[in-house]
Design goal:
Elements lengths: L11 H23 L8 H66 L5 H7 L3 H6 L9 H56 L4 H18 L13 H11 L18 H11 L8 H4 L4 E3 L9 E4 L5 E7 L2 E4 L8 E4 L7 E6 L1
Antiparallel strand pairs: 1-6, 2-3, 2-6, 3-4, 4-5
């Protein structure tokens, strides 16, 4: 006789295990597909993407440098204003003490004038607005009150200025943090890409970079070009002495540099102070076309001017390129971004 019992249902635990196993199998299959040799990025593709990320990191670095410079400037300005306010308050206190002494002397000689009593118990601005009382004051008292009024107005203005600068400082600190995160994010993404390479591919890339660094730190022939000026020549010589030093974000020497850190350091060695960032450096001198360039001139690249170097003659630039490289010579045509213009300091 045939049994009509219902088939035994799998337990909930068994269903869960089977579902989990199936999901794991799908995941493994997907991972295998992702890791398929045909889909894996090759060494050259990884290098191209990493170079692009380094360029973006440098772009954010220049913005970071600008925000940092602005922060330092604001802190100095705020400190100066606060010192001025403190000195002004001391001066105001002395002026009030002087007026109090006048009142005391008046009391000893026959009582305090009603107008002086009014001042001592109210705001001097309100007091001076009551023109009918001015004829009751001595010339010395009027002068003292006017000085107090002027000093109070000055302090109010300085405190308002300090308040605005403090707001600006807070916004600048926020920008500084955002740019720092952006740079770190780009560098982390680049490291992640590099970690997809095999040990052999990484070694090959490192060897290529070392060969490029060695060949590009050798002295270039500047041809018939002469330094734009004694200062430009001195700056260029200083930069040459740093060939082979590593690129480090935010560095200004002497052990490492970023692009504008190198140019500002080099000109400082020539006794010339130029701004910290590439964007700011682009506006400090006479603009030049490529045909007008002379050795030592500043040269700017990319539409937003986030990269700068020193012209080395014969279409070469001496610069600190990006993360993973060193201070070196390079053709202006292989920087990775268009040449925009030069500047003679």
């Amino acid at each position: 006789m045939t049994s009509h019992r219902r088939p035994k249902q799998p337990s909930r635990t068994r269903v869960t295990v089977l579902t989990t196993a199936a999901a794991a199998a799908v995941a493994l299959s997907a991972n295998a597909a992702d890791a398929a040799p045909g889909e894996k990025l090759g060494k050259d593709e990884v290098k191209a993407k990493v170079d692009k990320l380094y360029e973006q990191a440098e772009q954010a670095t220049e913005k970071y440098n600008g925000a940092k410079e602005k922060q330092q400037k604001l802190q100095k300005e705020i400190s100066a204003i606060q010192d001025s306010v403190a000195r002004g308050q001391q001066e105001l206190n002395k002026l009030r003490e002087g007026l109090g002494s006048l009142a005391t002397a008046q009391y000893r000689s026959g009582g305090i004038d009603a107008s002086v009593q009014l001042f001592l118990s109210s705001d001097p601005d309100d007091f001076l607005d009551k023109a009918s009382t001015l004829d009751q004051l001595s010339g010395q008292q009027v002068e003292a009150l006017e000085k107090i009024q002027d000093k109070q107005r000055e302090l109010v203005q300085e405190r308002a200025e300090a308040t605005e600068k403090l707001k600006d400082l807070a916004a600048t600190r926020t920008e500084l943090g955002e740019k720092k995160e952006e740079v770190q994010g780009k560098l982390a993404e680049a490291r992640k890409l590099l970690n997809t390479l095999t040990a052999k591919e990484k070694a090959a890339l490192d060897a290529e970079q070392q060969r490029a660094d060695r060949s590009s730190t050798e002295r270039v022939d500047i041809g018939h070009h002469a330094p734009a000026s004694g200062r430009a020549g001195a700056a260029f010589s200083a930069a040459q002495s740093q060939l082979g030093k590593p690129y480090v974000r935010g560095a200004t020497g002497p052990s490492s540099y970023d692009c504008s850190g190198l140019t500002s350091w080099a000109y400082a060695q020539a006794g010339v102070s130029i701004p910290r960032t590439s964007e700011a450096q682009s506006g400090i001198g006479t603009r030049l076309t490529r045909s007008q360039l002379q050795v030592g001139d500043l040269v700017f690249f990319f539409n937003d001017l986030h990269h700068v170097g020193l012209y080395a003659g014969n279409g070469q630039v001496l610069h600190a390129p990006r993360t993973g490289t060193v201070v070196r010579y390079e053709s202006m045509d292989t920087i990775g971004g268009p040449f925009m213009f030069g500047v003679r300091v």
